[in-house]
Amino acid sequence: MAEKREYRMEELARLAGITVRTLRFYRERKLIPPPRREGRIAWYDDDHLARLRTITALLERGHTLSGIAELAEAFDHGRDVGDLLGVGAPTEEEPIHLTPEELADHFAGEATPENLAAAMELGYLGTDGGEIVHISRRLLDVSSALVHEGIPLAEVLRAAKQVRTHADALAELFTDLVLHHATETDLPRLRPLARSVVEAELSLALDRRMRRP
Q1: In whole angstroms, what is the distance from residue 200 CA to residue 205 CA?
Q2: What is the spatial distance between Cα 5 and Cα 64, in angstroms, rounded to a whole number?
Q3: Of 31, 44, 62, 163, which one is least surrounded by beta carbons within 10 A?
Q4: How far is CA 111 from CA 74, 132, 210, in A?
Q5: How does residue 210 score in pLDDT terms, banded at 50, 70 and 90?
Q6: Cα 31 from Cα 16, distance rounded (Å)
Q7: What sign for the dihedral angle of Cα 156, 161, 164, 166?
Q8: Each residue of 98-150: pLDDT tens digit?
Q9: DSSP bridge pairs for 126
């Protein structure tokens, strides 16, 4: 991985397409993290540059500085990618890296601080430098599709919290079943069977629900 470049204030402002005065204002509003200090010299890096470009993109999309400040605070205090994925955690899901403006595009302007905090609490989102990490491309695509169908993101996240509770119970049931008759080393091999059962039962349940008057 390439080392992050560092910039003096004037160079950073030029690369970000803003004035030094604007950069100072953003720093005072805590829209960007503090620079690294070396004596009286402040050094900024690529994460600062990414954040500044994100701020510009969000402003162009109509977000207010107050809203951006709340988003920035959520990013800075959110879990990082290591906390999100776990060290060496096995998963069939593909994480996806996003910039804040890409996340906003996925959710048609509903990437509010409240919704972002709810997604972080669910464990859907973490941070990796200047980027956001969503734990599952599939969940991101489904959530985005539901929002574009007119379902508010807040409602999607509330439903996801309930689904998480049921999914944890199903995982516990399957694990107990396997461990009662086999060993823990058999779990990864038998995992696809659990997924197939859940998908089939959910499909049948949807059939029953749609036939109900």
Answers
A1: 9
A2: 29
A3: 62
A4: 12, 12, 32
A5: very high
A6: 14
A7: negative
A8: 877 788 788 877 877 788 888 888 888 877 766 788 989 999 999 999 999 99
A9: 133
